[in-house]
Predict the structure.
Amino acid sequence: MELKLMMEKLGAPQTHLGLKNMIKEVDEDFDGQLSFREFLLIFHKAAAGELEEDSGLMALAKLSEIDVAQEGVKGAKDFFEAKVQALSCASKFEAELKAEQDERKREEEKRRLRQAAFRELKAAFST
């Protein structure tokens, strides 16, 4: 799921089958998950030319690369800072959504408690 979200945020969404194939391509321990080492292996394989040009992993490597010789150190710094900023904005948005959902749950719980209290009072007066 994390890989799916990352690919969507990078602007290269993948199908479920595409994601499974991406994982299979670098999954050295065959656990069906990507460890940090296996994640870094994506970029190593891309640099060595071992990835298929049209694969999702190559898309990931291309979306996450910068040529320091061309951009310079300052350009690379700006590139990665922009990536971090974009991810933190997304995280803030997700946090706001979660806070709204939590607030709705609290309001719903309060409403249910008020209704239960009302039913108890109604039952006491009905008898």
Summary: The CA atoms of residues 71 and 79 lie 9 Å apart. The chain has two domains: 1-64, 71-126.
